[in-house]
Amino acid sequence: MITGPGGSGGPSARRTPPGPPASSFARWTSPQAEGGPTLIVPVGSLEQHGPHLPLDTDSVIAVAAATSAAELLTAGGEYVAVAPVVAYGASGEHQDFAGTVSIGRDVLTAVLIEIGRSVGTWTTRLVFVNAHGGNGAAVRDAVRLLRAESRDVSWVAAGVPGGDAHAGHVETSMMLHLRPASVHMDRAVRGTGGAIEQLLPALREGGVRAVSPTGVLGDPRTADAQDGARLCGLIAHDVADRIRHGCVDDAGLLTAPARETVASPQPPGVPAGSR
Ligand SMILES: [Zn+2]
């Protein structure tokens, strides 16, 4: 039976039992999962992120967003757990670049559906935290179908509204905060600027290579760890707020609570044209 995130008996009614940390779910024993936590599943990718960021950037960001959000929810008394990341995504648009390993939209959709059906036998609520835009269609399709099967499944995007699109200031800053040893700032080059909406037609037609020879959309040269920490904090609070208070829209997305104000995604001093 479905109990929507805002419904009676919903997640806010669950309280944290004494037990293992939410982030170590894979090391729980089966009896420890019997209480039916809200399960948060990060969804990432393994794809090129320019000459300076690692292939697993989206997975690192998805895990960080899910884990930090879970810590906030746990501190507020919610009973949550973070599952291991879905580390392969739909990355066909990056396939012209070495290192990209894509399982495509259809397979990712099927993987997410089967995850939902499986966990639905022992817990009542599942939230996907997606950090790769190219996964969006698969996540939406899977969540819609699972909800049509009367399951309490939804998703959130671990991203910054208005931020640059790929391997630019936003992702590079977050990686400088989360895993600096994997970031090669000496190789960072300015990529193609402009709004992703304007690039999308050419990107869909010819992939990322058609709009950016380096694979970078945005400008990573302005990145810094301090801003990365700020951006990670914004995302964690946004994800936690949506899980705690959000409503589910037609695409299965948890919407931001109305009281939330969205902070500026760009730090001072970043030229508008570099987004
Ligand atoms: Zn990325």
TrEMBL record:
GO terms for molecular function: creatininase activity; hydrolase activity, acting on carbon-nitrogen (but not peptide) bonds, in linear amides; metal ion binding. Pfam families: Creatininase (PF02633). InterPro entries: Creatininase-like_sf, Creatininase/forma_Hydrolase, MftE. One of its GO terms (biological process) is riboflavin biosynthetic process. Residues 1-10 have a biased composition (Gly residues). Residues 1-32 are annotated as: Disordered. Keywords: Hydrolase, Metal-binding, Zinc. Its EC number is 3.5.2.10. The keyword Metal-binding applies. Its cofactor is Zn(2+). The keyword Zinc applies. Belongs to the creatininase superfamily. This is Creatinine amidohydrolase. It comes from Allobranchiibius huperziae.
